[in-house]
Design goal:
heterodimer, A: 4-stranded antiparallel β-sheet, globular, B: about 120 residues, mainly beta, 4-stranded antiparallel β-sheet
Chain lengths: ~100, ~120
């Protein structure tokens, strides 16, 4: 299963709402996770099974979707949210999307 | 504290082998799947391999299938990645990660800091 993320890069002002998209080439049910990776750091799990937040993740992060279309939303962008965001499907052998780089405008 | 510590990376010539290790602590190792993910320079994350809690289910990414082998040792709370026939395109930072479930169908909720493999 190929996972495609859009956009590749996104520049947003602090406080604005951010929507990142992830699409799978076939249905993966809700077997999707989202990760945040900051420069020089290991990835961090944000969302699993498409919508529940992982432990310690702020409430401004939310996930939605099922089947082939998924979304990660940041309700109000903070400066510390600058990172690359990846979605991953694990309905069959896992695959990652190519990532979305989120920048502050 | 839940922790994963990778080791074994380094500089290796094309065609040679290397074995990565990942030591786990702070959780019941036997209960969870373990996986390897890599980040090549200028690229995105790539899933490399995964092994279920009981070693009964093992899978590999297409680019490493037939060359890499994942295994785990319950007595040592460790997971390994044996890499053979290495290619320059295997150059990457290799992360060990803990699955959130027993099988390889779940998010990866704990990550190590990675070990660098350079094939040149």
């Amino acid at each position: 299963t190929v996972v495609t993320q859009s956009p590749a890069t996104l520049s947003v002002s602090p406080g604005e709402r951010v929507t990142l998209s992830c699409r799978a080439t076939q249905s993966v049910s809700t077997n999707v996770a989202w990760y945040q990776q900051k420069p020089g750091q290991a990835p961090r799990l944000l969302i699993y099974d498409a919508s529940p937040r992982a432990s310690g993740i702020p409430a401004r992060f939310s996930g939605s979707g099922s089947g082939t279309e998924f979304t990660l939303t940041i309700s109000s962008l903070q400066s510390e949210d600058v990172a690359v965001y990846y979605c991953q499907q694990y309905d069959d052998w896992p695959t990652f999307g190519q990532g979305t780089k989120l920048e502050i405008k | 504290e839940v922790q994963l510590v990778e080791s074994g990376g380094g500089l290796v010539q094309p065609g040679r082998s290397l074995r990565l290790s990942c030591a786990a602590s702070g959780f019941v190792f036997d209960d969870y799947a373990m996986e390897w993910v890599r980040l090549a320079p200028g690229k995105g994350l790539e899933w490399v391999a995964g092994i279920s809690w009981d070693s009964g289910s093992i899978g590999y990414g297409d680019s490493v299938k037939g060359r890499f082998t994942i295994s785990r040792d319950t007595a040592k709370n460790s997971v390994y990645l044996q890499m053979k026939s290495l290619r320059p395109e295997d150059t990457a930072l290799y992360y060990c990660a803990k699955g959130s479930k027993s099988y390889i169908q779940g998010g990866l909720d704990v990550w190590g800091q990675g070990t660098t493999v350079t094939v040149s």
